[in-house]
Design goal:
- The chain is α/β, with parallel strands linked by helices and about 350 residues long.
- It folds into two domains: about 80 residues, Winged helix-like DNA-binding domain superfamily/Winged helix DNA-binding domain (Arc Repressor Mutant, subunit A); about 180 residues, Vaccinia Virus protein VP39 (Rossmann fold, 3-Layer(aba) Sandwich).
- It has 16 helices and nine strands.
- β1 and β2 form a beta hairpin.
- α4 crosses α5 and α14 crosses α16.
- The relative contact order is 0.08.
- The mean pLDDT is about 95.
- Bound molecules: S-adenosylmethionine (SAM).
- S-adenosylmethionine binds next to loops.
């Protein structure tokens, strides 16, 4: 179906290219609407509000607010209501659930981190690709020799990072902890367990397990004080450096979004420590965004791998690549399950000493 000049009709209007070129306009519209509190104001009003009312509540210009509200309507984040020629706005259900600060499934903190940190790092994506390394020095003026010292360059940054890590597990956590039946594993250690969001998903899915969150001392202290409550009695803490310190004994070690931060060499170093600490018959669960074996997708994992380049020392990998890292550390029996959401699960078993694989 070519045009009269023989050019395929699909090429006449580069819809995809235009969308890609302007994709950041959408991200920034969402970031600013959240930062200004548009969705929070509409949630607490419990009735549709006019642009004037919203602009006053968020302390912004009327003209700017009107344009922002129009764009949010176009993005299907806001509904409009017409009454005697007066226009008012309300949140769509998705906006209420995911874009307001107080919702239990809120992505507000992730959006804040995307806006204030990730967006700034991605400004240097071209340099990251050219140099093959992260761009913390250019973006924030801090050395990235020690990755987590750079990420946690202030206590405030550390808390923001922890909030970022926390929010996704309310949405994808149950799927990853139930991708395999983990009920045989009663003592679980969540290495780099951060805010404890995945630990909470484990204790709610498996009533008989206990989970120790192992993380750097200041992360553990913050997690204990601000993220994990006394009510989470089956969640404990262990301060340490997983590259340097002994690991606590456990039946199952969870490494969620840990290996994607590191080079293959460091991953094997860490997994070898896990293998030594793991009881025979025990296992390791990797939780990562898996790439297809031929690298053809999913797009989210492909983009996350670029994000790892810009921000860390690691990359996203395929299930076979994780299998190879696990095998290099001694785990012989590995399998993976896709969840259909962002994060997937890879399980590596440690043989029982006498009778082969469990
Ligand atoms: N597992 C959590 C999740 O998926 O939400 C957090 C993943 S975050 C990308 C990496 C975690 O590893 C952070 O909590 C960080 O503090 C921790 N971490 C980094 N280096 C560490 C080290 N050397 N020893 C212990 N924990 C470390």
């Amino acid at each position: 179906t070519g045009s009269s000049e023989g050019t395929p009709a699909a090429d006449a209007y580069p819809r995809k290219i235009l969308e890609y070129m302007e994709g950041f306009l959408i991200s920034k519209t969402v970031f600013s609407s959240c930062e200004l509190g548009v969705f929070d104001v509409l949630l607490s009003a419990e009735r549709p509000l006019s642009a004037e009312e919203i602009s006053q509540a968020i302390g912004a210009s009327l003209d700017g607010t009107q344009r922002l509200l129009a764009a949010c309507t176009g993005l299907q984040l806001l509904n409009t209501h017409q009454d005697d020629g007066r226009v008012s706005y309300s949140n769509t259900e998705q906006a209420s659930v995911y874009l307001t600060r107080t919702s239990p499934s809120s992505l507000y903190q992730s959006i804040q981190y995307s806006s204030r940190t990730i967006y700034l790092c991605w400004h240097y994506l071209t340099d990251a690709v050219r140099e093959g390394r992260n761009q913390y020095e250019k973006a924030f003026g801090v050395s990235s020799k020690d990755l987590f010292q750079a990420l946690y360059r202030s206590d405030e940054e550390m808390v923001k990072f922890m909030q970022l890590m926390n929010s996704i597990w309310n949405i994808c956590g149950k799927d990853v902890v139930t991708a395999f039946d983990l009920s045989p594993f009663k003592v679980i250690c969540d290495l780099g367990g951060c805010s404890g969001a995945l630990a909470k998903q484990c204790t709610s899915a498996y009533p008989e397990c206990t989970v120790a969150i192992f993380d750097l001392p200041k992360v553990v202290r913050t997690s204990r004080e601000h993220f994990v409550t006394e009510a989470d009695q089956r969640i404990g803490f262990h301060e340490g450096d997983f590259f340097k310190d002994p690991l606590p004994e456990a039946d199952l070690y969870i490494l969620a979004r840990i290996l994607h931060d590191w080079t293959d060499e460091r991953c094997i170093e860490l997994l070898s420590k896990v293998y030594k600490a793991c009881k025979p018959g025990g296992a390791v669960l990797l939780v990562e965004a898996l790439l297809h074996e031929d690298g053809s997708g999913p797009l989210t994992a492909q983009l996350y791998s670029l994000n790892m380049l810009v921000q860390t020392e690691g990359r996203e990998r395929t299930a076979a690549q994780y299998g190879a890292l696990l095998a290099a550390a001694g785990f012989t029996d590995t399998r993976h399950r896709l969840t259909g959401k962002i994060y997937d699960a890879v399980l590596g078993l440690k043989e029982t000493s006498c009778c082969g694989n469990v």
